[in-house]
Specification:
By secondary structure, the chain is α/β, with parallel strands linked by helices. Helices cover about 45% and strands about 15% of the residues. The protein has helices spanning about 5-15, 35-40, 60-75, 85-90, 95-100, 110, 120-130, 145-155, 175-180, 185-195, 200-205, 210-220, 230-240, 245-255, 260-270, 275-285, 310-320, 325-330, 340-345, 345-365, 365-370, 425-435, 455-460, 470-475; strands at about 20-25, 50, 105, 140-145, 165-170, 260, 290, 305-310, 380-385, 395-405, 405-415, 440-450, 465.
Length: about 475
């Protein structure tokens, strides 16, 4: 069953009705469902020639693979001499495209190109002089390495002005995950997204088990479990064997509430200028990290913080990585089936759930806006933080809405296995007091939680509204 991606599907399908052949670029992290989207969108629109690159293979191997895939898709006789360059190889398609209409799809384009510009330049020349004048319906370049797809394709001089459609494919939205997991409760759907984000492949695998706990046990804590080695597969495909990228992403994983570029540079000894900026941009464009700036500051402000927000990778660093030896050797002191059950009972895991819940809310603020009934009002939102001064302590609000009607909504997110006590109101008020010294706007406080508020908290009437999981996930319909 294919779910979601309606806007992206309409965009790709619109290429079929355009009288002029167009070029589209689609990119997003691995496992996000790029290939599935293309096949679903184009399945009833005509003929497709689909070519997929090979990871870490030479140009000659890529060309051989291209020719092999071509032979599998159409009746075609290969040349007596194998092409030695991409220009010669691509030229073989020209007579085919003069006879029949095809969509041409290059999947994992960065692998086909070996991360070099040669294929991009040759493809531009072939497109301009031959394919765009043939019966070709469109060309789709698809890749999982965002840095290459953006810098070497979208922003390249070769394809400047020639790309009509750009799609950055991201996680499934909560409403789509609910559709993908129709038998799961609101609570379990939320927990799936807290652990896996909106990555279709992970969610589909988890769906095969009776519960989320069973899924994580089998996928993440048993030898050969899919999620045991998934981080290594993703990391190597995105960043190769770069130790600096590995150090950076692991460093961010230890700072769950974000860290500034300056402190990152100082702690890792990486130049704060071009090197670190480029690495952070690569991780952000890949969808692994997010950068947040206080709502009242420009995007390039010094207070900008970077967070590791990919749920799976954060979970991997928190619980799988440290247990790899025990998982693979099956000598953990627990049966291989109950290691995660042991982890679930630890304070560290309960604390991680709190972070994961906050991360979910920050990534999907529209659900909270809908639950509060102000989706139609213009607003800015995100984390807000203020550095320590002589007069005031440092302060961080995980999610704040700055509405267009001179109202600020301060959201406190709490994930707890026991009722939420009055202390949360006291914690929130300390932040609000600092906020009142900064703005004259009306300030409203809201609590988002999976748990019940205690009797004392209910009697205090401190929060304007308390949003529970059912109400939050109902807004995802």
């Amino acid at each position: 069953m294919f779910v979601g991606r309606k806007n992206e599907m309409k965009t790709l399908q619109a290429m079929t009705s355009n009288p002029l052949a167009q070029v589209a670029v689609l990119y997003g992290r691995r496992r996000i469902g790029k290939s599935a989207l293309i096949r679903e969108a184009l399945q009833n629109t005509g003929k497709i020639l689909f070519f997929e690159g090979l990871e870490e293979q030479s140009q000659s191997a890529q060309i051989d693979n291209f020719l092999f895939q071509l032979r599998q898709q159409i009746s075609w006789s290969p040349p007596s001499k194998t092409p030695s360059s991409w220009r010669e190889c691509l030229s073989l398609l020209t007579p085919i495209l003069k006879k029949e209409k095809y969509f041409i799809v290059f999947d994992e384009f960065q692998w086909m190109a070996n991360y070099r510009h040669t294929l991009v330049s040759d493809l531009k020349m072939i497109w301009d002089q031959y394919w765009s004048k043939s019966k070709v319906q469109g060309l789709i370049l698809c890749g999982s390495i965002a840095s290459f797809m953006v810098r070497d394709v979208i922003k390249s001089k070769a394809f400047y002005g020639r790309i009509q459609t750009i799609i950055h494919l991201k996680d499934l939205q909560p409403k789509d995950v609910r559709e993908l997991l129709p038998k799961r409760s609101s609570q379990e759907t939320l927990l799936n997204m807290m652990h896996f984000g909106g990555i279709p492949l992970y969610l589909r695998q988890a769906q095969e088990y009776l519960s989320l706990s069973d899924a994580i046990n089998h996928l993440g804590f048993k030898p050969n479990g899919y999620l045991v080695d998934e981080y290594q597969r993703i990391f190597l495909s995105h960043f190769g064997k770069s130790q600096n990228y590995r150090r950076l992403i692991e460093y961010l994983g230890k700072h769950m509430h974000g860290v500034s570029r300056k402190k990152t540079s100082e702690d890792l000894g990486i130049s704060v200028g071009g090197t670190l900026s480029l690495m952070l941009d690569d991780l952000e464009s890949a969808g692994f990290i997010s950068a947040y700036t206080p709502f009242d500051k420009p995007e390039n402000a010094r207070l900008r913080k970077y967070h590791l927000t990919d749920p799976y990778i954060n979970f991997y660093f928190s619980f799988i990585k440290g247990n790899l030896k025990q998982i693979n050797a099956n000598t953990n002191g627990h049966s291989s089936g109950d290691l995660f059950s042991y982890i679930q009972a630890t304070p560290k895991y309960l604390s991680w759930l709190g972070w994961a819940f906050e991360n979910f809310c920050v990534r999907h603020p529209h659900l909270i806006a809908a639950a509060l009934g102000f989706s139609g009002i213009n607003y800015r939102c995100g984390p807000y933080f203020k550095a320590k001064t002589i007069d005031q302590p440092a302060m961080q609000i995980d999610l704040l809405f700055d509405r267009g009607d001179q109202t600020i909504v301060v959201c406190e997110m709490k994930y707890s296995m026991s009722p939420i006590g009055l202390s949360v109101a006291k914690e929130t008020e300390k932040k609000v007091e600092i906020l009142r010294s900064i703005t004259k706007k009306t300030i409203v406080t809201v609590l988002v939680t999976n748990s019940l508020p205690s009797r004392e908290l209910q009697k205090s009437n401190y929060f304007y509204k308390i949003i529970d999981i059912e109400a939050l996930m109902l807004c995802a319909n």
